[in-house]
Specification:
By secondary structure, the chain is of the alpha/beta class. The protein contains twelve helices and twelve strands. It has helices spanning about 5-10, 40-45, 60-70, 85-95, 115-120, 140, 165-175, 230-240, 250-260, 260-285, 305-315, 340-354, and strands spanning about 25-30, 80, 105, 125-130, 150-155, 180-185, 205-210, 220-225, 290, 295-300, 320, 330-335. The strands form two sheets. Strands 2-8-7-6-5-3-4 form a seven-stranded mixed beta sheet, with helices on both faces. Strands 1-11-12-10-9 form a five-stranded mixed beta sheet. Helix 5 (about 115-120) links the parallel strand 3 (about 105) and strand 4 (about 125-130). The longest helix is centred in the last third of the chain and has 24 residues, at about 260-285. It binds pyridoxal-5'-phosphate (PLP). The site of pyridoxal-5'-phosphate has 13 residues, from helix 4.
Amino acid sequence: MNFERDLLKKIAPYKAGEQPQDKNYIKLNTNENPYPPTSNITKLLNGFDIDSLKLYPDPNNMKLKKAIAEEKNVSIDNIFVGNGSDEVLAFIFGTFFESNSTPILFNDITYSFYKVYANLWQLNVKLSMLNDDFTVNMNDFVNANDVSGIFICNPNAPTGIALTKCEVEEIVKTNSDKVVVVDEAYADFSTESVEELINTYENLIVVKTLSKSYSLAGIRCGYALAHKGLINSLNKIKNCFNSYTIDRLCEMVSIEAVKDTKYHKECVERVIKTRERISKKLTEMGFNVLKSSSNFIFCSSDKMYAKDLYEKLKDNGVLVRYFAMDRIDNYLRVTIGTDDEMDKMLDILNKILD
Ligand SMILES: *Cc1c(COP(=O)(O)O)cnc(C)c1O
């Protein structure tokens, strides 16, 4: 007997990247940060008041919001926090768009969770096809017709390509009657955040995460920055699900990470430096490497099919991400690891291709 409701029977859930428990891979498949989170967390946890766990956390997470507000120079009323930015996105999909009605718009090649959320909330979707070079087709997004909302992942995943701040602003400005969501999971690795535009545009939501640039994928913390009207709506839907999405540990750990701006910047700069070095090396090895503004590289080789490369790399202890999807099934997405990990990966690649 399948007791699921019909909607769920039809849904193909998101497939997270492998988190193998069997052996130690050089793990370059889920865009985690290779560097540890700030050591201030060690101090925090050593002095953590375990007794406090008997109490529910603050449902409004004011301490965390205060830390984010200070770091981002916005008001507390402009912040919504969630259990990972995936949860924040899920709430956004459920808050602002009507089921079985005018479609929402996003790219055909982008973060694949968008489609899952759209299906879950029964939203119609209009896809904009990326150009052949995987750049965004701006014509579809500027003054977008017959859509009720827009999602842009910037820099895009899994391509790593970024729109400029001006381009995103044009999209936000010319769609002032619709909510425009900019998923900036990787923006810390680029130069093009539109965070500050939330003070200008009432229809803009910028979604951020601590999972990538702050090395905290394991703590599950993400947030949205937006005009307070949009934030109020998100609080409404959150309180229809779960008032305590952020637990005490998550809140305290996240605060330490957000506050240590110096360490954050150092890690980001190291990742960018390695990304540029490895992009160049892969290009020299004959790979087609897209210009990345994120913490991963999207590339293909005409010497071997991406799927075979993925499997051979895995046999040799290197895990990268392969998507068996139209248009990108000859590409690999390789997360930027430490310099040492990346050099090992290149050695193994060279051996495979020889
Ligand atoms: C990783 C990622 C997220 C989710 O991040 P969490 O905060 O870990 O849930 C959201 N959007 C994109 C594009 C991502 O790559």
